[in-house]
TrEMBL record:
Entry superkingdom: Bacteria
CDD domains registered for this protein in UniProt: HATPase_UhpB-NarQ-NarX-like (cd16917)
InterPro entries for this protein: HATPase_C_sf, HATPase_dom, His_kinase_dom, Sensor_HK_TwoCompSys, Sig_transdc_His_kin_sub3_dim/P, TPR-like_helical_dom_sf, TPR_rpt
Top-level class of the enzyme under EC nomenclature: transferase
The TPR repeat ranges on this chain: 143-176
EC number(s) given by UniProt: 2.7.13.3
Residues covered by the Histidine kinase domain: 546-635
Catalytic activity from the UniProt record: ATP + protein L-histidine = ADP + protein N-phospho-L-histidine
Alphabetized UniProt keyword annotations: ATP-binding, Kinase, Membrane, Nucleotide-binding, Phosphoprotein, TPR repeat, Transferase, Transmembrane, Transmembrane helix, Two-component regulatory system
Protein name from the UniProt record: histidine kinase
Length: 636
């Protein structure tokens, strides 16, 4: 469903009193025009078309209603209701022996399961639809199913399989060189980048720009340039970053979008920052912030505030204002997180209500059988009770004789169990936190990120087939900007939750990479030293603890110390890990800090306490701060 800007002539045609299949098609087209702006009105036209289709016994109209209403329900997050409609569509299609409609229903069910996300079920229905479309030799539908399968395998981190299917889609859509082909190239570029095949990814991105030029698709061209900017930051190619950011800035006015213009200013700021032209970078980020504060784009503003604060910290220019913008970014992040939690809570409530109804139905079906068993159970219970009373009397008699001995043993066992439970609980909390961070980081980046990318380019694909009115085009562009910001935020959040370098490269390289990254982005000069870290094979819990301790304490140095120099040292000697973190900042009063420890500091102390380590804090006001941490290496 997509708007074409032809609403007025469609409504004029609707004045005809003729009740036939052409009227059904007209009602559906009008519903499509309202679908993304006014769901209530769209639903009204779809329903009218459905009622007329039933009167005319028009199967395609009935099935079309199931697809259209299903799309509206998907937009509202009511996936279970969508599946009920689509299953009815499958039943009718099979009954009427209409294989094409059946295949369309299967593909729609796959799309709904992918949104839920239930990727195994999505894959099953895509494979049901594929042979049907192939038997009809419908190349467009076949290519789109290959593209759908590629998206699913991308989300499940099976990138090679995803690449195989997207290549099959491209082999079909290449000859058309249309919006479908463009969306397939975009999907392939993302897969190649995840596979670290960067030269191939850049080649495909250049193809995207060339095709976008040919199709006059400035949105796709802008997105490809943003991809280049992302890649340049990741690969630290500052000169290429400035080139691509400049090209994006030249292109953005053609899109007639304030949000896109502010995004171009942001990328120019990032480019000049990495090229050490801090004054120019600061001017551009000020423009971006000013524009987006009027638009109230939360996701963009988070990104812009962080960049603004980073530039204010360069050469310690204005740390107080920088702290203000960091706090603003944190506040916006909390708003986004709360919205996500509310959405998840609503979905869980719906699931709970469904499960509760199923339990009630099962209880009703079991009620008669339960009543029949009740009398037999009561008779049996009497005999059991008499036997239990006799056994209980004998047990009491013996219990009194050995009570004192059992009491002593019981108390000893309780103390032992309490110690064991405390250790197990601490381990479970630590492991659970790290595993959940890693899982959430992966799910956000590969799951929700893949879905948002698929939604984005599905929108782009649909747009190619229609001509948008100016007001609708602006709304469409704003939606696309929100998707872009969501994807960028997902990447940043997933990296903060569990850095890839810790999993792939090991603790030594992860620490060196982390210190290098923060040293580039702030004015504090960090020195990193390590001794013996490569000579000892550490368990994951030690690696994670070392990384999280250094991450938390260096973050506090950056935020609060006002230091110009800091040192991080990790040493392993005589089966003991020694961590030292010192700075020449303003220090603080330990008594005041201990009264209200932050969540991060509390987690840090819990980790060290569980590993039987100890922390020595040395600090005074205006005399810097030193943390000395000792953790013995032992079998946990």
């Amino acid at each position: 469903m997509a708007q074409t800007g032809e609403l007025a002539p469609l409504l004029e045609k609707l004045k005809s009193p003729k009740q036939d299949t052409n009227r059904v098609k007209l009602l559906n087209k009008i519903g499509d025009e309202y679908a993304y702006n006014d769901i209530k009105t769209a639903r009204k036209y779809y329903l009218e078309g459905y009622e007329l289709s039933k009167k005319l016994s028009f199967l395609r109209g009935i099935v079309r209603y199931f697809s259209s209403e299903g799309e509206l329900l998907n937009l509202e997050g009511k996936y279970d209701q969508t599946l009920l409609l689509l299953r009815e569509g499958v039943r009718l299609s099979i009954e009427k022996k209409d294989k094409m409609r059946e295949g369309i229903m299967y593909e729609n069910m796959g799309n709904t399961f992918a949104l839920m996300p239930k990727l195994d079920s999505a894959t099953t229905y895509y494979f049901k639809a594929l042979p049907i479309f192939e038997s009809f030799r419908d190349s467009i539908k076949t290519a789109n199913v290959y593209n759908d399968l590629s998206s699913v395998f991308t989300q499940t981190d099976k990138q090679e399989t995803a690449l195989k299917y997207i290549n099959q889609a491209i082999s079909i859509s290449r000859k058309f060189e249309d919006g479908f082909y463009l969306s397939h190239l975009i999907n392939k570029e993302g897969i190649l980048w995840k596979l670290k095949r960067r030269k191939e990814a850049e080649t495909v991105n250049n193809q995207i720009i060339a095709l976008a030029n040919k199709l006059n698709d400035t949105i796709a061209m802008a997105d490809a340039l943003q991809n280049f900017c992302d890649h340049d930051v990741e690969t630290q190619h500052s000169e290429n970053l400035l080139k691509h950011a400049t090209e994006l800035a030249k292109l953005s006015p053609q899109l007639q979008s304030a949000e896109r213009t502010s995004l171009a200013d942001y990328w120019l700021s990032v480019a000049y920052y990495y090229n050490h032209n801090y004054a120019t970078a600061l001017n551009y980020i000020k423009k971006a912030v000013e524009k987006d504060e009027k638009l109230k784009n939360i996701n963009h503003l988070q990104l812009y505030y962080i960049q603004y604060a980073k530039l204010l910290l360069v050469n310690n220019q204005d740390p107080i204002l920088a702290e203000k913008y960091n706090n603003l970014a944190d506040s916006l992040r909390n708003i986004s997180l709360n919205n996500a939690i509310m959405k998840n809570t609503k979905e869980l409530e719906t699931k709970y209500e469904t499960e509760k109804k199923e339990v009630a139905l099962k209880q009703l079906s079991d009620e008669n059988q339960y009543r029949k068993r009740l009398i037999s159970l009561l008779i049996f219970s009497v005999f059991v009770l008499v036997g239990a009373l006799i056994f209980f009397g004998l047990w009491i008699h013996n219990r009194n004789r050995i009570r004192k001995q059992e009491q002593i043993l019981h108390e000893q066992k309780l103390r032992q169990l309490e110690n064991e439970k405390r250790l197990l609980a601490s381990r479970a909390v630590l492991q659970g936190q790290d595993e959940e961070r890693s899982r959430l980081a992966k799910d956000l980046h590969d799951g929700l990120g893949g879905i948002l990318s698929s939604v984005k380019y599905s929108f782009l694909t649909m747009k190619q087939s229609f001509i948008l009115q100016e007001e609708h085009a602006l709304a469409f562009e704003k939606s696309m900007n929100l998707l872009d910001s969501s994807l960028a935020e997902l990447r940043r959040v997933s990296h903060n939750m569990m850095p890839e370098s810790l999993v792939k490269l090991g603790i030594q390289d992860a620490l060196r990479d982390y210190i290098h990254t923060i040293s580039e982005n702030i004015s504090i000069k960090f020195t990193y030293q390590s001794f013996g870290l490569d000579t000892v094979l550490l368990e994951n819990i030690y690696k994670t603890t070392i990384f999280r301790v250094i991450q938390e304490l260096t973050t506090n140095v950056i935020r609060h110390s006002k230091a110009t120099e800091a040192m991080v040292q990790v040493m392993i000697e005589n089966n003991q890990i020694n961590i030292t973190i010192e700075d020449n900042g303003i220090g603080f009063d330990p008594k005041e800090v201990n009264k209200s420890k932050s969540m991060g500091i509390l987690n840090l102390y819990h980790r060290i306490e569980y590993l039987k380590g100890k922390v020595d804090l040395q600090t005074k006001t205006n005399e810097g701060c030193s943390y000395y941490i000792e953790i013995p290496i032992q079998n946990i």
